[in-house]
Amino acid sequence: MDLLGLRAPGDEADKKKMSACVLEQEDQLDSAHSLAASIGHTPLVRLRNSARGLPAGVEIYAKAEHLNPGGSVKDRPALAMILDGERTGKLQRGMTILDATSGNTGIAYAMIGAARGYAVTLCLPKNASPQRKRILRSFGVNIIETDPLQATDGAQLLARRMFLAEPGKYFYPDQYNNEANWRAHYEGTAPEIWDQTEGRITHFVAGLGTSGTFVGTTRRLKELKPTLRAVSMQPDSPLHGLEGLKHMGTAMVPGIYDATLADENVAVTTEDAQAMQKILAQQDGLLVGPSSGANVFAALQLARTLPRESVVVTILCDGGERYNE
Ligand SMILES: Cc1ncc(COP(=O)(O)O)c(C=O)c1O
User: Fold this and answer.
1) Atom of ligand 1 nearest to the CA of 101
2) SS3 269
3) Please, what are the domains in the chain?
4) Closest residue by CA, ligand 1 atom 6
5) Lower CB density within 10 Å: C or N end of the chain?
């Protein structure tokens, strides 16, 4: 305290230390029941009706990432990047989390930011789905809309400019270039898949957005099983309806993307993805979004060509209720 204009030595520092200590104790007491603890450990679902007619002995599974508390696979990297920011001191109390996102990472930042006491500002293309924007606003996010024709690239450029103009105000995780993004999958998604398939996985298929899911999961799975084959999937054209995915040939390539990890690259049309989305909902009871439809479409195409004892795993990235019919 500084009542007489004289500052007792160590007073402020002690107070800070004490509150950090209290926070730490609270974190420890609460960690098992925290929002953070409910992220990950998602079920691995065997696709049955939507996968009819596969060659004998070929199995296909989907990791139900839409069952994360924020409703998508992006809860994992968002939590990892925020924790990394806190650990490195780049994110401190009173700062605002700022990033560019087509929606799901934003929802994850918004949810985790609210629970940990940070304001969140997001740049996203004007054409992001109204459902997602509504969710973001419910968490109290400040949304800045960018040119839809520039897709997520335009949102990325604006977020970077805002951060550079006021670096002390913002924590800018920059999911496209943040190693904690792919590490979340390296340390979480991949070992879970490994355990859930009891090491039987032979093929992994995932779409590319920031590429964190594909890069982190594949990197770890290939360490665990060098014979594993990984297939990366992208939209077939620059103008597509697969929210969250990038057409790498024409988009800004994420810094964390490692093209050497893929044994094969496939392209999926928006129409095929949407048709598969419908089949997943109506035949397997899985209400998921178009990028999940694209993942399963690519995984099924691959599975049809495989021999007995093949085990294909792909990702259900988010839920279908966030999209228009
Ligand atoms: C719906 C959806 N699917 C797929 C992805 C791609 O995931 P990643 O960024 O890990 O490549 C994203 C990323 O935002 C997404 O929102």
Assistant:
1) 14
2) coil
3) 37-73+181-322 (3.40.50.1100), 75-171 (3.40.50.1100)
4) 209
5) C
